[in-house]
Amino acid sequence: MPKQLTIDSPYSEIITWDNARFKDIFTRVQIDQIKDNFRKYDQDQDGFLNNMDVKFMMESLGEPKTHQEILSIIGEVDMDNDGKVSFSEFLVMLIPPPVQGPEMDPGCPALQQPVLSRIYNSGLASKAKFFEEAIYNSRDKTNENYEAVQSKIREKKKIEQMRKDEEEKERQEKERALKEKQESKARLAARAAMFSQ
C-alpha cells in the first residue's frame, strides 16, 4: 500500500497518490471541502477517525449508530486494519463506484480485483453514498446562492431608492406648501398694506 495521505497533504500529492487514483475524481475545491469535514469530525485531531469520531460524525449527520455498527463501518473502510479511518481511507471511501471495466468482472478473483472494487463489493457503496451526500450537504453554498443574494441586494436597493424617492417627494411637497404659505402671507400683507394707506 502506498504512503498514507494526511489532512495536511497538498492537493498535488493527493491527486498523484496511488498512481493518480484521485486525479480525475476530486477537484481542488472538493478536496478542501473533504479536508474541512475530516477536520470537523476528527475530534482529537490525531489525523484519524476512531470509533468515537465516527460516532460523533454519524450523530452530527443525523444517523446515530450503535457501537457495533460503528465498528462495522470502520471495518469496511479500514484497509490497513489499524481500527481507524485514515485520511487516505476516507478519500477512497468517497470514490464513486466504477461503472464498467474488467475489475468489475465477477469472474475475477477478489484478490486480483483493485482495492476500490473490493471495497464497493463489500457493501461500502451505500456508506460512500451517505458520506458523499453528507459532504455535499455541508459544502460551501456561497457560489450557489450568489444570484439569490444579488437579487435580494437589488431588491433592497430598489426599496431603499423608493424610500429615498418618497422622502424627496415629501420634502418637495413640504417646500412647495411652505413656499405657497409664505407667498400667501406676502400677498395678504401686501393687500393689508394697500388698504391701510
Q: If you had to describe this structure to a student in words, what would you say it looks like?
A:
- The protein contains seven helices and two strands.
- The chain is mainly alpha-helical.
- The protein folds into two domains: 12-98 and 114-138, Recoverin, domain 1; 142-196.
- InterPro entries: EF-hand-dom_pair, EF_Hand_1_Ca_BS, EF_hand_dom, EFHD1/2.
- This is EF-hand domain-containing protein.
Query: What is the level-2 CATH architecture name of the largest domain?
Result: Orthogonal Bundle
Q: Say which CATH homologous superfamily of the largest domain is assigned.
A: EF-hand
Class by SSE composition: mainly alpha
Give a short account of the largest sheet: 2 strands, antiparallel
Portion of residues in helices? 55-70%
The CATH topology of the largest domain is Recoverin, domain 1
Q: What is the helix/strand order?
A: HHEHHEHHH
Number of domains: 2
The DSSP helix count reads 7
Sheet with the most strands: spatial strand order: 1-2
Average pLDDT metric = 78
Shape: rod-shaped
Cα radius of gyration in angstroms:
34 Å
Unreliable residue stretches: 99-120
CATH class of the largest domain, named Mainly Alpha
**What separation lies between the terminal Cα atoms?**
116 Å
Number of strand segments: 2
Describe, in short, the structure shown:
By secondary structure, the protein is mainly alpha-helical.
